[in-house]
């Protein structure tokens, strides 16, 4: 057995920042490295796994892609992540590198801490934590714009000690980074990007390297060659929750919710997308993604919304015997009116 520690790269970043896109790109330029992928999503519909399995990279077969679906990886470390890693390490053919994609709502800190568990520590090391940032969302003020609302809520309820949950999570993910990828640079201009750099830098005490990217196109040699050993430095990367609850009170994801909408075939995909944009804006939906059954089309339509920006493309043919259908996962803040969003989407098909 190879006694060298296997490097593991943790890829984190808020909902829709471009983590899966970056990993997809990485798999196509990782040279001969055999990569095992552990992916974790918020919500009950595995879209990222589908996307990554669909890229057919030889260095990462479907068997090497493991989906953790029982909630956010930071909350299921003991029950899900550790057993998965243990099994992976028992494989006869061990991977050269492990890549872990956290859900967009996960705190990376508890995950990195898990690399200090005795069974894991002796065999694996964290090569680095990479935080992907949606530069366009930062430029649009997504991580800062509800300051006033939070202040108003706090003045009504003195027990509230939090910043907005989105802002806090964004900072926690930056605070844990060894490398920050300012992604989606195609959506903003140079001056806007400069402001994004300043805002991101201001939101973390640590000053990790920042690089810019479009569609997560970063050479594999950079992403998989950080060589940090982050598990030895977790004391310097504490999350807001760890700082506020030093007694070890577990954190949760109560501030966010998700649900799945199942629909029949959609006759007019362009009209469907436009109508979804209105629903997303009206209800402040953070993320919506899934697959659409377009009437009469042999191909499946994949739909990806980050805020009200929607990408859609036919990703593959429906397989023979596969049950066609439209399935979308919707993610928002807890106060999002789930019933109204669901009813509005259901009324579209
Ligand atoms: N314009 C533009 N779109 C991008 C870029 N990177 C990713 N996207 C799009 O952004 C959407 C979300 O990308 P994902 O890679 O799924 O994001 P993610 O971080 O994995 O999302 P979650 O897993 O839901 O948190 C998709 O529609 C991507 O095609 C980019 O650099 N520019």
Automatic annotation (TrEMBL):
Coiled coil: none annotated. It holds the Pfam family CobW_C. It catalyses: GTP + H2O = GDP + phosphate + H(+). GO terms for molecular function: hydrolase activity; nucleotide binding. CDD domains: CobW-like. Keywords: Chaperone, Hydrolase, Nucleotide-binding. InterPro entries: CobW (IPR012824), CobW-likC_sf (IPR036627), CobW-like_C (IPR011629), CobW/HypB/UreG_nucleotide-bd (IPR003495), P-loop_NTPase (IPR027417), Zinc-reg_GTPase_activator (IPR051316). Residues 256-349 form the CobW C-terminal domain. Gene3D superfamilies: CobW-like, C-terminal domain, P-loop containing nucleotide triphosphate hydrolases. Zinc chaperone that directly transfers zinc cofactor to target proteins, thereby activating them. Zinc is transferred from the CXCC motif in the GTPase domain to the zinc binding site in target proteins in a process requiring GTP hydrolysis. PANTHER family: COBW DOMAIN-CONTAINING PROTEIN, COBW-RELATED. Belongs to the SIMIBI class G3E GTPase family. ZNG1 subfamily. This is Cobalamin biosynthesis protein CobW. The lineage of its organism: Bacteria, Pseudomonadati, Pseudomonadota, Alphaproteobacteria, Hyphomicrobiales.
């Amino acid at each position: 057995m190879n006694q060298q520690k296997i490097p593991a790269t943790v890829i984190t970043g808020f909902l829709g920042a471009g983590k899966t896109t970056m990993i997809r790109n990485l798999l196509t330029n990782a040279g001969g490295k055999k990569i095992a992928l552990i992916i974790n999503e918020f919500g009950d519909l595995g879209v990222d796994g589908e996307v990554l399995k669909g890229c057919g990279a030889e260095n990462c077969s479907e068997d090497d892609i493991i989906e953790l679906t029982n909630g956010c990886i930071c909350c299921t470390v003991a029950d899900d992540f550790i057993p998965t890693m243990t099994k992976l390490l028992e494989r006869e053919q061990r991977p050269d590198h492990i890549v872990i994609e956290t859900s967009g709502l996960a705190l990376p800190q508890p995950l990195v801490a898990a690399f200090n568990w005795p069974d894991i520590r002796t065999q694996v090391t964290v090569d680095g934590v990479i935080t992907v940032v949606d530069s366009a969302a930062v430029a649009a003020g997504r991580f800062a714009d509800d300051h006033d609302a939070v202040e108003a809520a706090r003045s009504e309820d003195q027990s509230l000690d939090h910043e907005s949950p989105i802002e806090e999570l964004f900072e926690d993910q930056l605070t844990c980074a060894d490398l920050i990828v300012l992604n989606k640079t195609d959506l903003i201009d140079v001056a806007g990007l400069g402001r994004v750099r300043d805002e991101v830098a201001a939101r973390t005490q640590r000053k990790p390297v920042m690089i810019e990217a479009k569609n997560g196109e970063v050479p594999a040699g950079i992403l998989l060659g950080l060589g940090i050993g982050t598990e030895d430095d977790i004391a310097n990367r504490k999350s807001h929750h760890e700082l506020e609850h030093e007694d070890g009170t577990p954190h949760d994801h109560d501030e966010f919710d998700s649900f799945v909408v199942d629909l029949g075939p959609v006759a007019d995909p362009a009209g469907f997308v436009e109508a979804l944009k209105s629903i997303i804006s009206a209800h402040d939906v953070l993320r919506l993604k899934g697959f659409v059954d377009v009437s009469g089309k042999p191909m499946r339509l994949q739909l990806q919304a980050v805020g009200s920006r929607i990408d859609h493309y036919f990703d593959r043919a429906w397989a023979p015997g596969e049950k066609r259908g439209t399935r979308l996962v919707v993610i928002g803040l807890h106060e999002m009116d789930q019933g109204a969003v669901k009813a509005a989407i259901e009324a579209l098909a």
